[in-house]
Amino acid sequence: MKFTLDYTNMTARQLRFKGNLHEFWLGMNAESEHGNLNSRTDITFKNTILTAKNPRINIKFNETILAAKITIAHLNKQPDYYSRLLKTETK
Question: What's 20's DSSP letter?
């Protein structure tokens, strides 16, 4: 799932996030990678089909607020967490 800047801005306002919106957007998209990845492991939870490489760790699919809170937790520890992560992934 890829989040738009408008959607992440709305989510940031909803959670009263005051940090760097671009970094928040990077984080939301990075955290969403833990979601819908592999259609061979579909499971149903509360009438929602969850898909992941490992369903036990699929906490992001249809859980955008949870993904946002995890993003905020990372950014509270290190404000440029996702920019650094992106740099290490591209090397």
Answer: -
Token pair for residue 70? 């995890």
Q: Give CA–CA dist 34/22, Å, rounded.
A: 20
Residues 12, 13, 18, 21, CA torsion sign: positive
Which bin fits 4, alpha (ψ -120 to 50), beta or left (φ > 0)?
beta
66, 34 contact by CB (below 8 A)? no
Taking only the tens place, the pLDDT of each residue in 25-64 is 999 988 877 655 444 445 555 555 545 455 555 555 557 8
The answer to whether the pTM exceeds 0.85 is no
